[in-house]
Write a structure and sequence with these properties.
Helices cover 21% and strands 42% of the residues. It has 177 residues and is an alpha+beta fold. The chain has one domain: Nuclear Transport Factor 2, Chain: A, CATH 3.10.450.
């Protein structure tokens, strides 16, 4: 991510969006994920949205589709991921991990010119995960495209960029980051 300064407001889809509104949305999403309520989490996406986690060598401006990724889900794969995580077939998450998310440094940006009716939101994250006697911390930043709707915001793109040089041995991304 570049070191450009974000804004406290952006104008999108005929309205002004404020940073506190986006912070509340991201905090709500973190709570939903920490409680493993994947139906509520999927409802935060617009149909056709994407979920991405690029590899640890990712650099801003690179396409995760071309350079590799841990997760590169289109809408069909995203809904299949949620269905699997809710079932007993997700062996790596049965029973599920205990997670706790911290979100900070939320910033708003105008989207690229080709991104219609949406804006960029960036935020730093730390996700603590406890499973099978191991405790891992995943650190990085979010780089999302959000769409304002009458019912709140929806993800058009949810991208989690890890700040790690590499994942430690035994670290798994079997949960939603």
């Amino acid at each position: 991510m570049t070191t450009t300064v974000g804004r406290s407001t952006v104008h999108c889809a005929g309205r002004t969006v404020t940073r506190p509104e986006v912070e509340d949305f991201l905090y709500t999403e973190a709570d939903i994920l920490d409680h493993w309520d994947y139906d509520a989490w999927l409802a935060l996406f617009e149909p056709g949205a994407r979920y991405e986690i690029p590899t640890t060598d990712y650099r801003p401006g690179w396409s995760p589709h071309d350079t590799g990724s841990f997760v590169d889900d289109d809408w069909g794969l995203l809904t299949a991921r949620v269905k699997r995580l809710k079932s007993r077939k997700a062996h790596a998450e049965n029973p599920h991990s205990r997670t706790h998310r911290l979100i900070s440094n939320v910033r708003l940006f105008e989207p690229a010119e080709d991104a219609e009716n949406c804006f960029r939101a960036a935020a730093a994250f730390v996700v603590h995960r406890a499973r099978d006697g191991h405790f891992d911390a995943y650190v990085g930043w979010y780089d999302h495209l959000l769409v304002p709707t009458d019912d709140g915001f929806r993800f058009r793109l949810r991208r989690s960029v890890l700040g790690h040089e590499r994942l430690t041995a035994g670290a798994r991304l079997s949960f939603i980051l």
